[in-house]
Amino acid sequence: MALNLDAVGKKLGPVTRDYTWKDVVLYALGVGAGFSNLEYCYEKDLKVIPSFSIAAIFEFLTKIALETELNLAGLLHAEQELIFHNPIPTEGTLKTEGQVTDIYDKGDKGAIIVGQSETWHSNGEKLFTSIITLFARFDGGFGGKNAPKNEVVIPDRQPDIEVEDQTSEDQPLIYRLSGDVNPLHVDKDFAKMAGFEKPILHGLCTHGFACRLLIDNLVPGQPEKARRMACRFSRPLMPGDPIRLQIWKESDGQALWRVVNPKTGDTVIDLGVFEYGDIPKDEVRFDDRVAVITGAGGGLGRTYALQLAARGAKVVVNDLGGSRDGSSKGSSSAADKVVEEIKAAGGEAVANYDNVATPEGGQAIIQSALDAFGTVDILINNAGILRDKSFVKMEPENWQAVLDVHLHGAYHVTRPAFKVMKEKGYGRILMTTSAAGLYGNFGQTNYSSAKMALVGFMNTLKIEGAKYDVKVNTIAPIAASRLTEDIMPPDIFEKMDPEFVSAMALYLCSERCPVNGSIYNAGMGFFNRAGLVTGPGAVLDGGDKDFPSAEDIRDNFTRISSLKNGREYWQLNDQVGDVLTALTAPPQADGGETEAAAETPAGAGSVSDYFDSMPDHFVKDAAAGVDVVFNFIISGGGGGEWHCVVKDQTCTVNQGAADQATCTIKMGDTDFLDMMAGKLPPMQAFSSGKLVIEGDVMKSQLIEKIFKQ
Length: 709
Ligand code: NAI
Fold this sequence. Notes:
Blueprint: E1 11-19, H1 21-30, H2 52-56, H3 58-67, E2 75-84, E3 92-105, E4 111-121, E5 126-136, E6 161-166, H4 171-175, H5 188-193, H6 203-218, E7 226-233, E8 242-251, E9 254-260, E10 267-276, E11 290-293, H7 299-310, E12 314-318, H8 333-344, E13 348-352, H9 359-373, E14 378-380, H10 396-424, E15 427-432, H11 435-439, H12 445-466, E16 470-477, H13 490-493, H14 499-508, E17 519-523, E18 526-530, H15 550-555, H16 557-561, H17 572-584, H18 607-617, E19 628-635, E20 640-647, E21 650-655, E22 663-668, H19 669-676, H20 682-687, E23 692-695, H21 697-700, H22 702-706
Parallel strand pairs: 11-12, 11-14, 12-13, 14-15, 15-16, 16-17, 19-22
Antiparallel strand pairs: 1-3, 2-5, 2-7, 3-4, 4-5, 6-8, 7-10, 8-9, 9-10, 17-18, 19-20, 20-21, 22-23
Helix pairs in contact: 7-8, 7-14, 9-10, 10-12
This protein binds 1,4-dihydronicotinamide adenine dinucleotide.
């Protein structure tokens, strides 16, 4: 059967895998660790050998092979590269997604299949990237391009370090328990059928030995310093054979390596690269992400482009190069200059000069990202013009031109980008609104309308994108640019460097962005969130009349207008739900001054009040992918039992304990209320024994994340 060449680019996963410290130790024992590496084998101060990562995603790796429909009889693991972004925790849940990135043809020698995947931990951190190369011996000759050459050259000199270790006769029996249960490594008859005298050692087991020894010799006791490990598998090793690891130190933080079987002189693993050093902690990075920024030839867009590129993104710099009011013909020089700046700083970028204000222009902008970089992950709708006039003087052409660039422009570019993002299951879109739209500004009815319409656009697109991990947010910047130079007083203008804005734009476009459908003001170092808050309102049934009258509205206007205990809604249905609830149980709000009440948590006077209001504390965005049941057993006079089910970004709370809970939280009633009021930190409660957690302790930590105080 021929290879399925359509497998290239198709999203695979997510595949999730729960693991505990026992899996970590089992892997370590499988790759030869023991008392001499107790840090990998004892749950006290346990560390994880970084190559555990590849064993932990074994199920995902088989998906890559299966998707291409290769002939399994000819399958060999040819090369493996691992890039570590964060140290691997000793327990948790891994989520892996990826795709087949290339299929190469080596004629009658076979085919080369390359798959890339990213793995995230349940703590939200991206842990590692795996690039696997499979050799499909019987699948070549389909007329495809040849594979690029591996550029690694092992030096022609004695190694700087040589160390030996010993595999045991039983090594594959232990290693296979970490995931790869291929009978080739355990069953004599099967091994004979495959052309081997006896079961062979897993190539990834030898790889694990090498990883452990590389760390022992280059960063002793600090597996968290492994940054990248790549190699090519050459020959199998037999269980019981010795291992010799040869290391050549190349530069600070980089070594080349090879594994040799000292008994036969055979090279078992070749062309090894190991990079080590401190992993920059918690840096917001965009490596391998493709970003499109409209209107990036100057002002804010230019700053976004430079900073995204500096943090690893490949950037499409779009700019028509027109005048401030969009009336003059465009020039390519603005976009070209920014591309030059990015390249001079070592980044990757291409220019695009299309007009966002037409459907063809929008399509062409996204096409230039696909042509240059193969995809689009980030879109910042930033292009803008101004045509300010007081309302009576606002002629239709000035009204239209501004809507065309800001609102229709965002539609034209977002539509083709969203299609790509939805298909790949990832995307970040940023709309650019303005304080003029959010709050109003004299002489800008056209601009305010367009800018506020973008908020409406976001409100619905965020819902359509949510299940594909496409997040849509909005920034309201204040920055020095040609749009503001004659509006702001010179002394304030000087303090409005666009770099004060770009930090927020970048965070909202990052993988770790925690929000979807939010608006942030950013400028001059001041950041805050703007939201649409809806008050609890009042139900007026008109008394003995059929309908409430204008006088009823007048008499209850304070209550109707109050935003005290107001709410932000995720979508229309939520608001309609509240209306229906209010109609069945009218609230007794006393009205009061307008307040930013969204930040005020609903009152929780007793334990039972807390559980009644628990769904109000639920942070839907933080619960993406969470599927848990929490039992709460609260002792004391005010206590009781409740369970909370979080699934598909919804939360339901009911009395009584569930039969099968992910974890059970046990506390006294007063401690519980103190903790919920923020007076008793959860960690302190746990370490002092006031909080007892049974079941999956890791998942219990989600409570803090998905319920705001
Ligand atoms: P800017 O004028 O420096 O940048 C806008 C860029 O968009 C220009 O380079 C322009 O050539 C480009 N552009 C205009 N029409 C285009 C079209 N049809 N197709 C492609 N490119 C086009 O202005 P600035 O200040 O950097 O503005 C960026 C965005 O931020 C705009 O959407 C603006 O409305 C918004 N904004 C800016 C504020 C500020 O304080 N600078 C305040 C609130 C919002």
